[in-house]
Design brief:
- By secondary structure, this protein is an alpha/beta fold.
- About 30% of the residues lie in helices and about 20% in strands.
- The strands form two sheets. The chain has a seven-stranded parallel sheet, with helices on both faces. Strands 10-9-8-11-12 form a five-stranded parallel sheet, sandwiched between helices.
- Strand 11, helix 10 (about 270-275) and strand 12 (about 280) form a beta-alpha-beta unit.
- The relative contact order is 0.12.
Length: about 290
């Protein structure tokens, strides 16, 4: 097989994409992974740690000059996969440089957040971005059930839109249900208003004698939500951030995972839960 180059342009090293990158190396591709930072403070607070990329060639860049240099060093036949139309200035410059060289690229995009009236300003903005980028796109990799239709409504060519997902890995064995006095309901995520853990606590209160809440993560709402659960009389545990590689152990013991988010571009923890054989419940606003 021809040894084709694939370049991932991502905001950081994330398990959402690194499994796919390593798998492509395993079947013979030369894979480059480019990002402005290895791991954000926010993700580190959630228990993420540095990820072993194996034979994937990692490039950590600081500015657009370094990004343009990497584009110029890539093969003319390389496949470039960029994260979004408007993630940051560096990646926008990458797409501009690829267009200047006459090289088409791919864009990955999650379900676009539209909850408040001002979010609908994104519709004309994305129409402009899609119109501007369409001539140089090989395709759009659309993550989320409604994303393809939303992009098409913004003027994207339907023949260039492909359903996509995050190809995550699980090093754990299948979950086995562990009977106990109460069913364990898991919440895993950043404790911010967007995640709506308060809604889950309200829903659990009528069944507090049968359920136990395991709330994993950290954030500004943690103390407030912990106090809410205490006042509701809900048996709860708050382990704080848990290393990502240990999340499977919690999922294996849980009765179900609940992701009540007001918005999630995908909600990878739902996929991780199902991979463990643990049922998952999520709001209709998750990707």
């Amino acid at each position: 097989m021809q040894n084709t180059e694939i370049w991932f342009w991502q905001p950081l090293v994330t398990p959402h994409m690194t499994g796919l990158a390593r798998a492509l190396v395993a079947i013979g591709y030369t894979v480059h992974y480019v990002c402005p930072e290895l791991l954000s403070d926010n993700r580190r607070m959630l228990g993420w740690s540095n990820i072993d990329l194996g034979a994937v060639r990692l490039h950590v860049i600081e500015d657009t000059q370094q990004a343009r240099l990497l584009v110029s060093q890539s093969s003319a036949e390389a496949e470039h996969i960029c994260s979004g139309f408007r993630v940051n200035r560096i990646f926008g410059d990458v797409q501009t440089e690829l267009a200047r060289l006459g090289r088409k690229h791919w864009v990955i995009i999650e379900q676009v957040r539209e909850m408040h009236w001002y979010h609908f300003l994104k519709r004309p903005l994305y129409r402009i971005l899609i119109q501007r980028n369409q001539p140089m796109l090989k395709g759009i990799l659309a993550i989320g059930a409604d994303t393809a239709d939303w992009l098409q409504a913004r003027g994207a060519n339907p023949d260039s839109i492909y359903p996509f997902t995050y190809f995550i890995e699980s090093p754990y064995s299948e979950a086995s249900f562990q009977a106990g006095s109460k069913h364990q309901v898991l919440f895993i995520g950043e404790m911010i208003p967007l995640k709506k853990l308060d809604l889950l606590i309200d829903a659990m209160e009528p069944l507090k004698d049968e359920l136990q809440l395991i709330a994993i993560g950290s954030g500004p709402c943690r103390d407030q939500w912990q106090e809410q659960a205490r006042k509701a009389g809900i048996d709860s545990q708050w382990p704080g951030p848990v290393p990502h590689e240990e999340i499977g152990n919690y999922l294996a013991r849980g009765s179900c995972l609940v992701l009540p988010s007001e918005h999630d571009g995908w909600g990878v923890v739902v996929s991780e839960s199902m991979m463990m054989g643990t049922p998952a419940i999520c709001s209709h606003r998750c990707g």
